[in-house]
Protein backbone atom coordinates (compact mmCIF):
# COMPACT_ATOMS: atom_id res chain seq x y z
CA UNK A 1 0.00 0.00 0.00
CA UNK A 2 1.20 3.47 -0.89
CA UNK A 3 0.59 6.42 1.42
CA UNK A 4 -0.78 9.30 -0.67
CA UNK A 5 -1.35 11.91 2.01
CA UNK A 6 -1.52 12.44 5.73
CA UNK A 7 -3.17 15.23 7.71
CA UNK A 8 -3.06 15.73 11.47
CA UNK A 9 -6.65 15.95 12.73
CA UNK A 10 -7.81 16.16 16.38
CA UNK A 11 -4.41 14.83 17.42
CA UNK A 12 -4.93 11.77 15.22
CA UNK A 13 -4.33 11.38 11.50
CA UNK A 14 -6.37 11.34 8.33
CA UNK A 15 -4.56 9.29 5.70
CA UNK A 16 -5.23 8.24 2.12
CA UNK A 17 -3.74 5.06 0.67
CA UNK A 18 -3.58 3.52 -2.78
CA UNK A 19 -3.34 -0.24 -3.13
CA UNK A 20 -3.82 -3.00 -5.67
CA UNK A 21 -7.10 -4.85 -5.05
CA UNK A 22 -6.99 -8.51 -6.08
CA UNK A 23 -10.76 -8.79 -5.75
CA UNK A 24 -11.52 -5.80 -7.99
CA UNK A 25 -8.48 -6.30 -10.22
CA UNK A 26 -7.58 -2.61 -10.17
CA UNK A 27 -5.89 0.05 -8.09
CA UNK A 28 -8.07 1.51 -5.34
CA UNK A 29 -7.82 4.44 -2.97
CA UNK A 30 -9.25 4.42 0.54
CA UNK A 31 -9.12 6.81 3.49
CA UNK A 32 -8.61 6.08 7.15
CA UNK A 33 -8.91 8.22 10.25
CA UNK A 34 -6.61 7.01 13.01
CA UNK A 35 -7.41 8.49 16.44
CA UNK A 36 -4.52 9.44 18.78
CA UNK A 37 -5.03 6.19 20.74
CA UNK A 38 -3.86 4.24 17.66
CA UNK A 39 -0.27 5.40 18.32
CA UNK A 40 -0.21 3.07 21.32
CA UNK A 41 -2.31 0.07 20.32
CA UNK A 42 -4.67 -1.21 17.63
CA UNK A 43 -8.10 0.40 17.97
CA UNK A 44 -11.63 -0.73 16.99
CA UNK A 45 -12.79 0.42 13.60
CA UNK A 46 -15.91 1.70 11.90
CA UNK A 47 -16.24 0.97 8.18
CA UNK A 48 -18.16 3.76 6.45
CA UNK A 49 -19.77 2.99 3.09
CA UNK A 50 -20.66 6.03 1.01
CA UNK A 51 -23.45 6.64 -1.48
CA UNK A 52 -23.81 7.25 -5.19
CA UNK A 53 -21.20 9.53 -6.82
CA UNK A 54 -18.96 9.45 -3.74
CA UNK A 55 -15.30 8.57 -3.27
CA UNK A 56 -13.33 8.06 -0.07
CA UNK A 57 -13.36 11.85 0.35
CA UNK A 58 -17.01 12.88 0.86
CA UNK A 59 -17.46 11.45 4.33
CA UNK A 60 -14.03 12.49 5.59
CA UNK A 61 -14.48 16.09 4.42
CA UNK A 62 -18.17 16.67 5.15
CA UNK A 63 -19.44 14.50 8.02
CA UNK A 64 -17.29 16.03 10.76
CA UNK A 65 -16.80 12.66 12.44
CA UNK A 66 -13.14 12.97 13.42
CA UNK A 67 -13.58 14.94 16.65
CA UNK A 68 -15.82 12.34 18.29
CA UNK A 69 -13.80 9.46 16.83
CA UNK A 70 -10.69 10.95 18.46
CA UNK A 71 -12.46 11.25 21.80
CA UNK A 72 -13.71 7.68 21.57
CA UNK A 73 -10.52 6.09 20.20
CA UNK A 74 -12.23 4.74 17.11
CA UNK A 75 -10.68 4.41 13.65
CA UNK A 76 -12.84 5.04 10.57
CA UNK A 77 -12.14 3.46 7.19
CA UNK A 78 -13.78 4.88 4.06
CA UNK A 79 -13.53 2.84 0.86
CA UNK A 80 -14.41 4.14 -2.58
CA UNK A 81 -17.83 3.27 -4.04
CA UNK A 82 -16.78 1.30 -7.13
CA UNK A 83 -13.76 -0.01 -8.99
CA UNK A 84 -11.85 2.80 -10.73
CA UNK A 85 -9.97 3.19 -13.96
CA UNK A 86 -11.10 -0.13 -15.42
CA UNK A 87 -12.45 1.50 -18.55
CA UNK A 88 -15.57 -0.58 -19.18
CA UNK A 89 -17.93 0.59 -21.92
CA UNK A 90 -20.75 2.73 -20.50
CA UNK A 91 -19.16 2.83 -17.05
CA UNK A 92 -19.31 6.61 -16.77
CA UNK A 93 -22.61 7.20 -18.56
CA UNK A 94 -24.85 7.62 -15.51
CA UNK A 95 -24.44 8.61 -11.87
CA UNK A 96 -26.40 5.61 -10.57
CA UNK A 97 -24.67 2.72 -12.36
CA UNK A 98 -21.02 1.89 -13.06
CA UNK A 99 -18.31 4.09 -11.59
CA UNK A 100 -19.34 5.63 -8.28
CA UNK A 101 -22.21 3.15 -8.05
CA UNK A 102 -20.88 -0.35 -7.30
CA UNK A 103 -23.87 -1.07 -5.01
CA UNK A 104 -21.78 -3.36 -2.77
CA UNK A 105 -22.63 -6.49 -4.79
CA UNK A 106 -20.51 -9.07 -6.60
CA UNK A 107 -21.49 -8.70 -10.25
CA UNK A 108 -22.14 -11.85 -12.24
CA UNK A 109 -22.90 -10.22 -15.61
CA UNK A 110 -20.48 -9.16 -18.32
CA UNK A 111 -18.62 -6.91 -18.64
CA UNK A 112 -18.95 -6.07 -14.91
CA UNK A 113 -18.15 -9.43 -13.30
CA UNK A 114 -14.37 -9.13 -13.52
CA UNK A 115 -14.09 -5.89 -11.54
CA UNK A 116 -17.40 -4.99 -9.89
CA UNK A 117 -17.09 -7.08 -6.73
CA UNK A 118 -17.53 -4.39 -4.11
CA UNK A 119 -19.25 -6.77 -1.67
CA UNK A 120 -16.15 -8.95 -1.30
CA UNK A 121 -13.94 -5.88 -1.32
CA UNK A 122 -15.60 -4.05 1.58
CA UNK A 123 -16.55 -7.12 3.63
CA UNK A 124 -13.33 -9.15 3.27
CA UNK A 125 -10.38 -7.80 1.30
CA UNK A 126 -10.16 -4.27 2.68
CA UNK A 127 -10.64 -5.22 6.36
CA UNK A 128 -7.95 -7.93 6.01
CA UNK A 129 -5.58 -5.37 4.49
CA UNK A 130 -6.11 -2.63 7.06
CA UNK A 131 -5.99 -5.07 9.96
CA UNK A 132 -2.64 -6.36 8.68
CA UNK A 133 -1.07 -3.00 7.81
CA UNK A 134 -2.57 -0.40 10.17
CA UNK A 135 -3.11 -0.14 13.94
CA UNK A 136 -6.76 -1.19 13.76
CA UNK A 137 -8.20 -4.29 15.42
CA UNK A 138 -10.70 -6.88 14.26
CA UNK A 139 -13.40 -5.22 16.37
CA UNK A 140 -15.52 -3.89 13.50
CA UNK A 141 -18.68 -1.90 13.05
CA UNK A 142 -20.29 -0.76 9.82
CA UNK A 143 -22.35 2.22 8.75
CA UNK A 144 -23.13 4.11 5.59
CA UNK A 145 -25.34 6.47 3.64
CA UNK A 146 -27.95 5.77 0.97
CA UNK A 147 -26.38 3.15 -1.36
CA UNK A 148 -23.78 2.78 1.41
CA UNK A 149 -26.51 2.41 4.03
CA UNK A 150 -27.80 -0.51 1.97
CA UNK A 151 -24.22 -1.82 1.85
CA UNK A 152 -23.82 -1.56 5.62
CA UNK A 153 -27.14 -3.32 6.31
CA UNK A 154 -26.46 -6.24 3.99
CA UNK A 155 -22.84 -6.60 5.14
CA UNK A 156 -24.04 -6.99 8.72
CA UNK A 157 -27.10 -9.15 7.96
CA UNK A 158 -25.13 -11.58 5.77
CA UNK A 159 -22.14 -11.97 8.09
CA UNK A 160 -23.11 -12.96 11.63
CA UNK A 161 -20.32 -12.26 14.08
CA UNK A 162 -18.32 -10.06 11.73
CA UNK A 163 -19.54 -6.69 13.05
CA UNK A 164 -20.31 -5.53 16.59
CA UNK A 165 -22.92 -3.02 15.39
CA UNK A 166 -24.55 -1.53 12.31
CA UNK A 167 -26.25 1.75 11.48
CA UNK A 168 -27.31 3.70 8.42
CA UNK A 169 -28.32 7.14 7.22
CA UNK A 170 -31.12 7.26 4.64
CA UNK A 171 -30.35 3.73 3.41
CA UNK A 172 -31.80 2.14 0.29
CA UNK A 173 -33.77 -0.32 2.41
CA UNK A 174 -35.45 -2.41 -0.27
CA UNK A 175 -33.35 -2.15 -3.46
CA UNK A 176 -35.29 -4.81 -5.37
CA UNK A 177 -38.34 -2.52 -5.15
CA UNK A 178 -36.87 0.85 -6.18
CA UNK A 179 -35.53 2.26 -9.45
CA UNK A 180 -31.90 2.70 -8.28
CA UNK A 181 -31.72 -0.87 -7.01
CA UNK A 182 -33.56 -2.43 -9.94
CA UNK A 183 -31.29 -0.74 -12.46
CA UNK A 184 -28.13 -1.77 -10.59
CA UNK A 185 -29.19 -5.34 -9.86
CA UNK A 186 -30.38 -5.96 -13.40
CA UNK A 187 -27.08 -4.67 -14.77
CA UNK A 188 -24.75 -6.38 -12.30
CA UNK A 189 -26.73 -9.55 -11.47
CA UNK A 190 -28.93 -10.19 -14.52
CA UNK A 191 -32.65 -10.82 -14.72
CA UNK A 192 -32.99 -13.73 -12.27
CA UNK A 193 -34.53 -11.85 -9.35
CA UNK A 194 -33.76 -14.67 -6.91
CA UNK A 195 -30.14 -13.53 -7.03
CA UNK A 196 -31.22 -9.95 -6.21
CA UNK A 197 -32.81 -11.02 -2.92
CA UNK A 198 -29.35 -11.91 -1.58
CA UNK A 199 -28.52 -8.21 -1.49
CA UNK A 200 -31.79 -6.71 -0.20
CA UNK A 201 -31.89 -5.83 3.51
CA UNK A 202 -35.68 -6.04 3.72
CA UNK A 203 -35.66 -9.54 2.21
CA UNK A 204 -32.70 -10.68 4.33
CA UNK A 205 -34.34 -9.78 7.65
CA UNK A 206 -36.59 -12.87 7.98
CA UNK A 207 -33.67 -15.28 7.68
CA UNK A 208 -31.00 -13.25 9.55
CA UNK A 209 -28.99 -15.55 11.80
CA UNK A 210 -27.84 -12.76 14.11
CA UNK A 211 -30.33 -10.22 15.49
CA UNK A 212 -27.96 -7.22 15.57
CA UNK A 213 -30.13 -4.15 16.33
CA UNK A 214 -30.43 -1.69 13.44
CA UNK A 215 -30.07 2.07 14.00
CA UNK A 216 -31.43 4.06 11.07
CA UNK A 217 -31.76 7.83 10.72
CA UNK A 218 -33.90 9.28 7.94
CA UNK A 219 -34.78 12.88 7.05
CA UNK A 220 -38.39 13.66 6.18
CA UNK A 221 -37.36 16.22 3.52
CA UNK A 222 -35.08 13.73 1.76
CA UNK A 223 -35.74 14.09 -1.97
CA UNK A 224 -35.19 10.35 -2.50
CA UNK A 225 -37.31 9.09 0.40
CA UNK A 226 -40.53 8.11 -1.37
CA UNK A 227 -39.19 6.72 -4.60
CA UNK A 228 -35.94 5.09 -3.56
CA UNK A 229 -35.46 4.45 0.15
CA UNK A 230 -38.55 2.63 1.59
CA UNK A 231 -37.63 2.53 5.29
CA UNK A 232 -41.22 1.50 6.07
CA UNK A 233 -40.70 -1.81 4.22
CA UNK A 234 -37.64 -2.60 6.30
CA UNK A 235 -39.40 -1.57 9.53
CA UNK A 236 -42.32 -3.87 8.67
CA UNK A 237 -40.01 -6.80 7.95
CA UNK A 238 -38.26 -6.17 11.26
CA UNK A 239 -41.53 -6.09 13.14
CA UNK A 240 -42.66 -9.39 11.62
CA UNK A 241 -39.33 -11.08 12.36
CA UNK A 242 -38.93 -9.45 15.82
CA UNK A 243 -35.68 -7.88 14.67
CA UNK A 244 -34.84 -4.81 16.75
CA UNK A 245 -34.84 -1.62 14.70
CA UNK A 246 -34.65 2.01 15.76
CA UNK A 247 -35.89 4.08 12.82
CA UNK A 248 -35.71 7.77 13.62
CA UNK A 249 -37.49 10.18 11.29
CA UNK A 250 -35.98 13.67 11.47
CA UNK A 251 -38.28 16.49 10.45
CA UNK A 252 -36.97 18.77 7.71
CA UNK A 253 -33.63 17.04 7.03
CA UNK A 254 -32.70 16.21 3.44
CA UNK A 255 -30.41 13.57 1.87
CA UNK A 256 -27.19 15.55 2.14
CA UNK A 257 -24.13 15.41 4.34
CA UNK A 258 -25.65 18.32 6.33
CA UNK A 259 -28.06 15.68 7.64
CA UNK A 260 -25.29 13.17 8.30
CA UNK A 261 -23.16 15.76 10.11
CA UNK A 262 -26.12 16.52 12.39
CA UNK A 263 -26.37 12.97 13.74
CA UNK A 264 -22.99 11.33 13.12
CA UNK A 265 -21.87 11.71 16.76
CA UNK A 266 -24.90 9.71 17.91
CA UNK A 267 -23.98 6.93 15.48
CA UNK A 268 -20.36 6.92 16.63
CA UNK A 269 -21.57 6.67 20.25
CA UNK A 270 -23.84 3.77 19.29
CA UNK A 271 -20.91 1.93 17.69
CA UNK A 272 -18.52 2.85 20.52
CA UNK A 273 -20.80 1.16 23.03
CA UNK A 274 -20.91 -2.05 20.99
CA UNK A 275 -17.14 -1.90 20.44
CA UNK A 276 -16.49 -1.63 24.18
CA UNK A 277 -15.17 1.94 23.96
CA UNK A 278 -17.60 3.50 26.44
N1 LIG B 1 -28.08 13.23 -8.62
C1 LIG B 1 -27.45 13.42 -7.33
C2 LIG B 1 -27.59 12.14 -6.56
C3 LIG B 1 -26.40 11.69 -5.87
C4 LIG B 1 -26.46 11.84 -4.39
O1 LIG B 1 -27.33 12.48 -3.79
N2 LIG B 1 -25.48 11.23 -3.79
C5 LIG B 1 -25.38 11.21 -2.38
C6 LIG B 1 -25.36 9.76 -1.98
S1 LIG B 1 -26.77 8.88 -2.64
C7 LIG B 1 -24.08 11.86 -1.95
O2 LIG B 1 -23.59 11.56 -0.88
N3 LIG B 1 -23.52 12.74 -2.79
C8 LIG B 1 -22.22 13.31 -2.56
C9 LIG B 1 -22.14 14.39 -1.53
O3 LIG B 1 -23.17 14.93 -1.10
O4 LIG B 1 -21.00 14.70 -1.11
C10 LIG B 1 -26.02 13.85 -7.55
O5 LIG B 1 -25.38 13.43 -8.55
O6 LIG B 1 -25.51 14.62 -6.72
From TrEMBL:
One Pfam entry for this protein is Esterase
Q: Per the similarity annotation, which family is this?
A: Belongs to the esterase D family.
Superkingdom field: Bacteria
Q: Which GO terms describe its molecular function?
A: carboxylic ester hydrolase activity; S-formylglutathione hydrolase activity
Q: Does the keyword Hydrolase apply?
A: yes
Q: Is Lipid metabolism one of the keywords UniProt gives this record?
A: no
Protein name, per record = S-formylglutathione hydrolase
Q: Which organism is it from?
A: Marinobacter nanhaiticus D15-8W
User: EC number(s) per UniProt?
Assistant: 3.1.2.12
Gene that specifies this protein: fghA
Role noted for this protein: Serine hydrolase involved in the detoxification of formaldehyde.
Any one Gene Ontology cellular component term annotated for this protein: cytosol
Amino acid sequence: MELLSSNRCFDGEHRRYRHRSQVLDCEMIFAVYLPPQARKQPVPVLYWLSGLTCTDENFMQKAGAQKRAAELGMAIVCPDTSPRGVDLPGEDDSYDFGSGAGFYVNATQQPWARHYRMYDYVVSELPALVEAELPVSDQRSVSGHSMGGHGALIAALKNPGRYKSVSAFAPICHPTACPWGQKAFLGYLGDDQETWAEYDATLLIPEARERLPLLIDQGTADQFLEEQLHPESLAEACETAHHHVTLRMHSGYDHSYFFIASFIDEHLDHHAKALGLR
